[in-house]
Design brief:
Strand content: under 5%
Number of helices: 12
Largest sheet: 4 strands, antiparallel
Structural class: mainly alpha
Distance between the termini: 36 Å
Number of domains: 1
Length: about 350
């Protein structure tokens, strides 16, 4: 039996989401490169100042305060500001490409001009750059825009470094010990240092920010062309799916007012609903038929071997067909190959 128009649209948009995941992989590398430079600069400043060389504890504490105020705080602020600007620009490019792709997918699948207008640059920026989304630390925090979250992430890193260095000099640790606090130890692949927490927070924030950018661009297209379109919440279904997203999976919302259709669960601000949220809104045709509620594995099996080979690579695709990839491994494989915005055509 032929798949519904909406199922075909949804399949095309899932493919788009995979591409966005691959772009995120590239952006993640760029963010981590920035943090590697920051780590090197922090360690150089720490080595140059060396607060452990002084005998009196009060003097060592003053030196840590001066080091943070004059050197490390400005380094962190400047580097995180660069990251925020980099991602604002990159995700705007991704959003523009996503908006164009949605128009192409819907119109070519439906074989008619259902999407007639594209959102303006201002409208996209309102959602992607100036839109608010949940904290990368915990969902109970008040939401704000991405640039603010990067500023707060930098401030949090600076505070942790200050507290740790103050503790270190109070314990009369030497410079090597203080360096280990920041960098971590080789025995743990440097996962026990303060910068490891900074890297983890940054990757979580980037994932949340990317989800926000993709979702906002899709909803902006839908809101500009509401006559025959509606939005459907789609969650990645696995053991990591949050309750808030699991309960919304498959729910439909009107456009452009985002009112529930045949249910009472509010849209609120839309995905991301929490840190690391992987849910997305799919824009479909009101009379275009159903969309299957599937796991990633079920969806990928429907796409056939050629697509599996293209997305996963031949080796992992064969492992997938032999049921030797876990759901987490599968998700990592689908987005693991980097894709630049230039390669995407954005």
């Amino acid at each position: 039996m032929a798949e519904s128009v909406n199922q075909q649209i949804a399949d095309g948009l899932v493919r788009q989401q995979i591409q966005a995941g691959r772009v995120e992989t590239t952006l993640r590398r760029e963010v981590l490169e920035h943090l590697a430079i920051l780590e090197s600069d922090i360690l150089a400043a720490l080595t140059s100042a060396d607060p452990t060389q002084f005998v009196l504890l009060s003097r060592r504490r003053r030196e840590v305060d001066a080091l943070m105020r004059q050197d490390i705080d400005p380094l962190v602020q400047e580097r995180y500001s660069r990251i925020a600007a980099l991602l604002d620009a990159a995700l705007m490019r991704l959003a523009r490409h996503e908006a164009g792709a949605i128009e192409t997918i819907i119109n070519s699948t439906a074989d008619e001009q259902i999407v007639e207008e594209q959102p303006s640059e201002r409208q996209l920026r309102a959602g992607v750059v100036n839109g608010i989304f949940p904290s990368a630390a915990k969902p109970t925090d008040l939401a704000t825009v991405a640039a603010d979250w990067w500023t707060r992430a930098g401030e949090s890193l600076s505070q942790r470094i200050s507290d740790s260095l103050t503790t270190g000099v109070a314990l009369e640790e030497n410079l090597v010990d203080l360096t280990r606090r920041v960098r971590g130890t080789a025995a743990t692949a440097f996962a026990d240092g303060l910068m490891a927490k900074g890297r983890s927070d940054a990757q979580r924030l980037l994932a949340t920010q990317t989800t926000n950018a993709v979702n906002e661009s899709r909803m902006a297209v839908g809101d500009r062309n509401p006559q025959r379109l509606m939005a459907v919440h789609q969650s990645i279904l696995d053991s990591r799916t949050s309750y808030i997203c699991l309960g919304r999976n498959g729910l439909r919302y009107s456009l452009p007012d985002h009112e529930p259709i045949n249910h009472a669960i509010p849209y609120l601000s839309g995905p991301p609903y929490h840190p690391n949220c992987r849910s997305i809104m799919t824009i479909v045709v009101r009379d275009g038929g159903p969309v299957a509620q599937e796991t990633t594995a079920q969806w990928l099996r429907r796409q056939g071997a050629a697509f599996q080979d293209e997305v996963l690579g031949p080796t992992r695709a064969k492992m997938f067909r032999d049921d030797r990839l876990s759901p987490r491994d599968l998700l990592a494989a689908t987005s693991g190959r980097p894709l630049t915005l230039e390669e995407l055509g954005a």
